[in-house]
């Protein structure tokens, strides 16, 4: 065996503190061994034997392995359609967005002053969607097309109270229909599919009707028919949802023009690789009056303290934390990186470019249609954009196989029909190959059209879509935006509950391998063997790490994993004749998505109290279990708790709930404090979701990609999600899918695979212990400045700590906001603010941060405490000091006028002006693009698409 030098051990690269730093940090806590920290966990749940994982491999070895798996996939030319289309990612966008850590290591833009770049990109996304659909307000992004349709049904439910039927176009994408059916099961709606939607609206008491445009078969309903459907629907107070291909809308009538209330769909074909089904950003836009019940995030324009226009998340930001089970949806992480990619595709091509791409696709489809028609093939319709359905009695399988032999994947509709969908990447040779398979010859003739649809280029008129069409300009625009943001590539992001750890380059690289990036989710199984093997191995490793028996990778966010897990619990109770078991106990400290997901799964939320020390009030738990014994479906707890503590009561809690016939859901978002040390599936839990975009190194991407696998014990395995088109994706006994694609965000799974493969069992355990060490080290260093709110019985925290600012705020009037914004001046992203306790900051350093960075953070916090003392002592005016005025922009610090009681250097360089490689000090100073943003102003005057450039002039 070849011996690797230790620097080649990946865990040494992933874990921040060196061996000697680790010893010093341990000594500061009065400990001598890293293993001593394992004692922070209750003995009853601690696992000391090593995980059964393959030996850790090097970066070079994992890249080799993944190259091999990618080569086992045979993407061919994807002409299957069904909501996923071949597209050409502009290389300038691929390298400078998708593959650029400045974009992919950013967090959700809750701190808007350090997120102006990605907020602008998302505002462009909203403008693009709003322009193309004609509806005034578009959201920042949703999880995929299937869940976007289901979310639109949810909006309709909240607006029209009458009726209990969801009416679906028979030509709706089958995976969207299946996702809607899953949600409808939980909510008790009836789902009816029909082709003649006007007649169906007359027959059924519907509250929503969903039309697909173009339909799965390729057919485009004429505008006259769409208007008749909308008129009939509105007569009966029924909401009209249009599920539209955004590229087709460059040529078709905008849904607003024929009176649709909501438009939804996918933005995948705007330059986002197929990725075997995801991650891709879904979109939603709504008519006036519905904006306040929209799911997901919405970017709005406001102003900063200097009156400069500035972007921020508007309205429903973190609304689950406020409205909990009454929230409009459980969507938290969505697919931001992919929304940014899609928006940049539109910025780069502009309206003319997009229309040119759509025209070419349509023209190629018409040529193919003429060739096939000429050869006597029967076409389902002559009104199409890019997709044909050809009737070939009894020969469909044979023709699809023949096309595959020529390097093209077509859709096998049934024994008698084949679907053909043309994409941006379809070449002359592909068209010729397809024609040949059908015994036709491709000529210059064309056939078919867009029914009575027509559209002027009345979209994307804003300068941003008409300015950056050369690569030089585009590159500079992307760089300018990313320079406005603070991501992990600049410094530590100590966000509690978010696990902003390293996303290593060796983990990221393979997602761009063509074998992973270019495969269609409904490609035949024999051409997806690499993904099948990757999924099989990754599931096995996750099962081993969590102690569960079965894992489904389908949920494409943590909250979607929660929904999937709760649906499994529901399925289990129903199978046991316990349909009355609908109560879900949720501790008051739980993440807001828990309650929102429980409501979506049709459960009734009952809150369990917390004690003053933050732990679950076990007396209240006993009382609630007793009170709801016969209706108890489940308890949802986060472990370690959202207070950052390993509660000793966890095994007792599991026992109590099980005795009453309930199931235990452990929210696995904090798995970074358990991996290698304890296994929820073995300490009493029945189900968990994992956040691969936290614990398992998938980057946050500014708010997604999300990957939230659900893991269960054997008795819940029959109720994991499945998929209508891919039998291997889940059990037949399931309730259905929770996401459009069989394996959710499959395209980013190589990241977690590489992470586990390179860390191995020892590396994972060491990472967890170091995460605990780092949190305790920070807590200890800061205890004199900001007390740590909660700790376990041994005085230790888990992988994060809550700093209590409330007493300080009381005496000094300096708020958590002020401290969070002042940290920007010191070159840091703020910790999590006011979750789970209002008026506090929750710090999660993760194992990837070095001692140097931890010390820099602690010193900044200690210096901020000294600044607060000055305010308290009256040395600085309580309304004019570096804290209330933070963050300081370059424009402010260099302004001719300076009337503050502190110096410009104190404002902009509070940590000094020394040289150094680190963000925030001296030459590497990070300057926020805007000063403190006025959130309320932005919510009162909702502006959610690009404002005219004059708005930025002085
Ligand atoms: C404890 C906890 N549960 C659930 C979630 C939801 O995960 P996601 O944002 O991926 O939907 C989060 C996300 O921050 C979380 O911290």
Automatic annotation (TrEMBL):
Pfam families: GcvP2_C, GDC-P. Residues 1-21 are annotated as: Disordered. Residues 12-438, 602-721 form the Glycine cleavage system P-protein N-terminal domain. InterPro entries: GcvP, GDC-P_C, GDC-P_N, GDC_P, PyrdxlP-dep_Trfase, PyrdxlP-dep_Trfase_major, PyrdxlP-dep_Trfase_small. Keywords: Oxidoreductase, Pyridoxal phosphate. It catalyses: N(6)-[(R)-lipoyl]-L-lysyl-[glycine-cleavage complex H protein] + glycine + H(+) = N(6)-[(R)-S(8)-aminomethyldihydrolipoyl]-L-lysyl-[glycine-cleavage complex H protein] + CO2. It is an enzyme of class 1 (oxidoreductase). Residues 767-888 form the Glycine dehydrogenase C-terminal domain. Its EC number is 1.4.4.2. GO terms for molecular function: glycine dehydrogenase (decarboxylating) activity. The modification N6-(pyridoxal phosphate)lysine is found at residue 694. Its cofactor is pyridoxal 5'-phosphate. Residues 1-12 have a biased composition (Polar residues). The glycine cleavage system is composed of four proteins: P, T, L and H. PANTHER family: GLYCINE DEHYDROGENASE (DECARBOXYLATING), MITOCHONDRIAL, GLYCINE DEHYDROGENASE, DECARBOXYLATING. HAMAP family: GcvP (MF_00711). The glycine cleavage system catalyzes the degradation of glycine. The P protein binds the alpha-amino group of glycine through its pyridoxal phosphate cofactor; CO(2) is released and the remaining methylamine moiety is then transferred to the lipoamide cofactor of the H protein. Belongs to the GcvP family. This is Glycine dehydrogenase (decarboxylating).
